[in-house]
Design brief:
Helix 2 packs across helix 3. About 8% of the residues have low confidence. By secondary structure, the chain is an alpha+beta fold. The chain folds into two domains: 71 residues, Double Stranded RNA Binding Domain, CATH 3.30.160; 44 residues. Strand 2 and strand 3 form a beta hairpin. It is elongated, with a radius of gyration of 20 Å. The chain has a four-stranded antiparallel sheet, covered by helices on one side. Helix content is 39%, strand content 14%. The chain starts with a strand and ends in a 16-residue tail after the last helix.
Length: 142
């Protein structure tokens, strides 16, 4: 089964839900909090995994507030300028410039095309990736 994307209703953060053959159940993860917390949950149904993830996200947000750390906006609520700088090797720069010239498009257009096609290919591969180990249950603070 592939990866499904759903919003976590009570917190507004996105969720990935996928079937784990190894765990014989569903795993739900929150990519919006990746790097801050391993916000993930297990359930015997998609709905149960999402419900458990909602609890985990609530606990993560509670912990961030208690520690005075910044709470990140959900990815869907963030704004982006559409511009960023990236450094590449001279060889790669030359190859992309040649490909752009060959296609009679600007370097910027060629880079956007390559990034878009690579992102789409990566999304297809992610649907077949191996599921992570079953996450440990969240511990509630009193």
């Amino acid at each position: 089964m592939g990866i499904d994307y759903e919003a976590t209703p009570s917190h507004g953060y996105s969720a990935k839900v996928f079937w784990s053959h190894e765990d014989n159940g569903y795993i739900a993860v929150c990519p919006d909090l990746q790097g801050i917390s391993n916000a993930s949950a297990f359930g015997d149904t998609r709905e149960r995994a999402l419900k458990e993830l909602d609890v985990v996200i609530g606990l993560v947000l509670e912990e961030l507030r208690a520690s005075g750390k910044a709470i990140p906006d959900p990815i869907g609520a963030r704004t982006y300028s559409g511009k960023f700088n990236v450094r590449v090797s001279k060889t790669l720069h030359r190859q992309i410039a040649a490909a752009a010239e060959n296609d009679d498009v600007s370097l910027n257009t060629k880079v956007v095309e390559l990034l878009s096609s690579g992102l789409a290919a990566g999304s297809r591969r992610a649907a077949y990736s191996v599921a992570p180990r079953r996450p440990k249950a969240a511990v509630r603070k009193k």
